[in-house]
Design brief:
disordered N terminus; 2-enoyl-CoA Hydratase, Chain A, domain 1; Enoyl-CoA_hydra/iso; Enoyl-CoA hydratase/isomerase family protein; seven-stranded mixed sheet; four-stranded mixed sheet; 13 helices; alpha/beta
């Protein structure tokens, strides 16, 4: 077992041929561009390392996987889009989107060990992983963005639809549905429920890490026959740019301190 500390919000632990990548941003566990960039860089190293045969992504603080993307950064981006300081294409080229694309494109298994709150951007990243294992006591898994007048902007709707079907994904996104671990398993969003998410993920990771790497790579490549992404980020950028009422809603959301109640 070895530990590799990344600066700030991401740590990497090696256990045999498995890399365990933890994200933590106390106290709330939201992910902003800085944390997304750190996660991207850590994952890039693990994916490129031929000695790593399986990767686990999990939360580094109790009760939180990734709570959601940093709404204050989305609100700020809305103001920049409205004033022409950035355009929708630049908005779509973010470290957060890089992480999601990297997870989906990986040719080795990436397991999301969902150890706590997994909402919005947190679930979008988990959906990009190969396998999702949730702790049995997790109470909040969902895409609740509609509650603050936006929607998942990193491919989450398309990825969810590929897993549970378009109608169910559409309804979840339209209603901002939040599920517990067992409900998410019944819906097909989570592949397994375990007493401890990391323990369950390690069990699966050891199994997969023991398989022939060439065969695993071939299966991963053959299964990756879809590309859901950029459309949702561009659509979110245009919404933020063109709808003053949405930008005002985000400002109220942040100013009133209601965000934990609304999307947690």
């Amino acid at each position: 077992m070895t530990n590799e500390a990344s600066p700030g919000q991401v740590t990497v632990e090696r256990v045999d041929a498995i890399a365990i990548v933890r994200f933590a941003n106390p106290p709330h566990g939201t992910m902003a561009a800085k944390g997304a960039a750190q996660l991207r860089d850590a994952l890039a190293r693990a994916i490129a390392d031929e000695a790593v045969h399986a990767i686990i992504v999990t939360g580094g603080q109790d009760g939180v996987f990734i709570r959601h993307a940093d709404v204050s950064q989305i609100a700020k981006a809305g103001e920049y889009l409205a004033t022409g300081q950035i355009d929708p294409a630049a908005f779509a080229q973010s470290p957060f989107n890089d992480v999601a694309a990297m997870l989906e494109a990986a040719r080795k298994p990436v397991i999301a060990a969902i150890n706590g709150v997994c909402m919005g951007g947190g679930l979008e990243l988990a959906l990009a992983c190969t396998i999702r294992i949730a702790a049995q006591d997790v109470k909040a898994i969902g895409l609740p963005e509609i509650r603050i007048d936006i929607f998942p902007g990193a491919g989450g709707i398309a990825r969810l639809a590929a897993i549970i079907g378009m109608q169910k994904a559409r309804l979840m996104s339209l209603r901002g549905t939040v599920l517990d671990a067992h409900e998410a398993f019944q819906a097909g969003i989570v592949d397994e429920v375990a007493p401890d998410a990391l323990y369950g993920a390690m069990k699966v990771a050891r199994e997969l890490a023991g398989r022939a790497p060439a065969a695993i790579r071939a299966i991963m490549a053959l299964a990756a026959d879809r590309t859901p992404l950029e459309g949702s980020s561009l659509a979110l950028a245009r919404l933020l740019r063109d709808e003053p009422a949405v930008r005002e809603r985000l400002r109220r959301f942040l100013a009133d301190g209601e965000w934990l109640d609304q999307i947690s």
